[in-house]
Amino acid sequence: MPDQFYCLYVPGSAPPDVDQIAHELLATFLRLRRSLRAVSAADGLSPSQATALTRLGKGEAVTASALATLENVRPQSMAAIVDVLEERGLVTREPDPHDGRRRILRLTDAGREAFDGDIAARDEWLTLALRARLDDDELRTLDAALGLIARVTR
Length: 154
Fold this sequence. Notes:
- This protein has helices at 18-38, 47-57, 64-71, 75-87, 109-133, 136-152; strands spanning 91-96, 99-107.
- The chain has a single domain (18-152), classed as Winged helix-like DNA-binding domain superfamily/Winged helix DNA-binding domain (Arc Repressor Mutant, subunit A, Orthogonal Bundle).
- The mean pLDDT is 88.
- The longest helix has 25 residues, at 109-133.
- By secondary structure, the protein is mainly alpha-helical.
- The protein is elongated.
- A two-stranded antiparallel sheet has the order 1-2.
- 62% of the residues lie in helices and 10% in strands.
């Protein structure tokens, strides 16, 4: 059993401390997020640039303005981020066919390759970490917990 794993609730004991569970869950997901960022295949991109590339790759936004809203940054800041992605040949800006004032962001082939490689690197790291650190019973427990976490996020 990993030295950082512990259970906050033992059946038959006092009711679970929901505040403590929420705190631990958030802290755990933040550590997971940091670990996944560390293995990112988006070579040389800042976290903000990598996040913008990921959002574009997932189809979450099509304009710099939409990206700025999603990332809670000023449009000018996002424009600078998109400029770097464009300079690196990862995105292009195309005129919106429905609104000539807007520019649509699209991943280039290189951008799609970087996005796909990033996802693959993260998947591989997490798969290897799960296999190395958890036994079959713990993997079953984690699998069951995923359903609960999914319910919380819906």
